[in-house]
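From: lab user (bench 3)
To: helpdesk
Subject: output format question, protein + zinc ion

Hello, I'm new to running complex predictions and I'm not sure whether the block I got back is the full result or only part of it. Here's what I submitted:
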Amino acid sequence: MALWARAAVRALRLWGPGGERAWARQPRITGGSRPGSRSAGISGVHGNGGSGGTEKFSLQDVAELVRAGACRRVLVMVGAGISTPSGIPDFRSPGSGHYSNLQEYDVPYPEAIFELPFFFHNPKPFFALAKKLYPGHYRPNVIHYFLRLLHEKGLLLRLYTQNIDGLERASGIPASKLVEAHGSFASATCTVCRRTFPGESFWADVLVDRVPRCSVCTGIVKPDIVFFGEPLPQRFLLHLADFPMADVLLILGTSLQVEPFASLSAAVRNSVPRVLINRDVVGPLAWCPRSRDVVQLGDLVHSVEKLVELLGWTGEMKDLLQRETGKLSG
Ligand SMILES: [Zn+2]
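Helpdesk reply: Thanks, we reran it on our side. This is the complete output you should expect:
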């Protein structure tokens, strides 16, 4: 029997009729589990948690666990790779990234666009980039809508994104389910008097290439994007509660090179399956792999479509995409 099928059978044994007895027969995870938590049972399903396991996990195993109801809290981390199918270049891709396209902005070196000293010297390049990312210029793709479907099914514990393009919000995932770790254009703050402004207030200026100014003190109004050296948003602290609670971690389209975001991938319990869907093996999954890691390399859209199929959600995905496309053309 294929590994995935065995996993499914075990999962069904646990959560199907007589599940409690099956539970009692399974060894329980030691450490990190929550008393009385059903979902901690995924550890029991697969024997001793963490590095002690010997079976190789597959995408199908994880899909079967979700289908069987054994993974109810799906935590997701995403990076620039999920936005490239929407036409937004990866910040770090040589030749095609934002950093490579900055000549037109007249910046001394690429990172300067997100550095406060350069911003105060010349805020125009940053606002030129902001204008490119104006809501509506780019549209969510099938990966964003897969995450929206996770939310609609009540499975999305939280979505941690490094992206500042706002496509997670645009796909219809509520702000309460998001941690925009590097900030967003949804709000802004005066750099002088610290007054806060809603996102709508500065776009009118940005769209006509004018630097937005505070209506009270005339200081530059900076969208709440996290620049180098700035603290992460308060909401990032939610990771302290979210990661120990996760039943499965999906990591999509990120090179996991920026801290502290990158370290989060190691913050789930050892027994929790981690699924990396990316072009390459990266970060902690490459140098400190765990027995329940699943690595799905290659084209992101194809990989996500494969996962959707394994989950049995292809029809619902098509319906959702059709509804959203209809909205756009309507
Ligand atoms: Zn001000």
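A quick orientation on your result: Residues 1-53 have pLDDT under 50 and may be disordered. Let us know if anything else is unclear.
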